[in-house]
UniProtKB/TrEMBL annotation:
Pathway: Amino-acid degradation; L-threonine degradation via propanoate pathway; propanoate from L-threonine: step 1/4. Belongs to the serine/threonine dehydratase family. It is an enzyme of class 4 (lyase). The keyword Cytoplasm does not apply. This is L-threonine dehydratase catabolic TdcB. It comes from Streptomyces caeni.
Amino acid sequence: MSHSTSHSLPTVTLDDVRGAQKMLSGVARVTAMEGSRYLSRLAGTPVHLKCENLQRTGSFKLRGAYVRIAGLLPEERAAGVVAASAGNHAQGVALAATLLGVHSTVFMPKGAPLPKISATREYGADVRLHGQVVDETLAAAQQYAADTGAVFIHPFDHPDVIAGQGTVGLEILEQCPEVRTIVVGVGGGGLIAGIATAVKSLRPDVRVVGVQAEGAASYPPSLAAGHPVSVKNPVTMADGIRVGRPGEVPFRIVRHLVDEIRTVSEDALSTALLLCLERAKLVVEPAGASPVAALLAHSGAFEGPVVAVLSGGNVDPVLLQRVLRHGMAAQGRYLAVRLRLTDRPGALATLLGVLTLVDANVLDVSHVRTDPRLGLTEAEVELHLETKGPEHCAEVGRALRDAGYTVID
């Protein structure tokens, strides 16, 4: 694709996105649009979920990667492509390159989840593990590109990638023509820039709202400054949107076309993931759940009908277990409590009897009897409990104190 560039105008057009849509026909799925009665009731307006977690490779990334690689010159294809990613972009590049007959090398951090490493290899990439953090992995991929002539495929900072992601926006307008607000998770900005380009060109009345994790929110300060700025040490469970600096190309588009950027807490992200699993029966990674988190945190703030883009579902099972526990705790359905009791025969059984009376389900018990912090006749017990909500948690705490136990934490 060719693009006219300007510092004052977006560098991706509706024609680019429509061209990408034709290119992706038969390659990327037109993913489902599912209504959510629960979220609709909460928001007071119809809410629909755009299920990019059901896309090939488990996220929207295939769209942009395919369009970018398909646009390479023959000599560039012959040199192969290289990417750096901890997950979704890696898999998107791997499959796109394989479908186009191009050799791909993907650098991933040494600590990347094993399921994501395996999937990337199975899609056809030569996977190389390098570095402990993504910045080190990115430097290795760029050095490989310089040494070999392979084309570096950026995850978001390229017009062709943005045009490919923009096809999500065209599908939304086709599937939900009455839409008034589209809510999108934001990392580097490629997805929301593409969606905004497509949607605002055809329906300027539709609001496009971005969502970032509070600990990795680079767009609010960048928009305030008028240029991309970096957030040092971005921290969030939502690794798909844990990007410390917006891309130059998407930032220009976001600045012109996106109506608003909101932020959400880690509690909201984990609660949203749990909701998607329990209510919508959809496995969504924390980044993919960020639009739902915004709906939960700011209920009633969005004009409907609303479309929330579930951008990906590639969540590591180990992380999923932790996030679900975090989400249950945020909803008052999981309680960890540490207390001291007198170390005598039957003491633990008596404690468990108290918990039985208040209908708390014991998931795990850790019993410490020898520790310098403990008195001669004391023991410390840590309990992980399944509870029924904040009121039940308070009831459990009262029951333990009323029974004479010293609750430490």
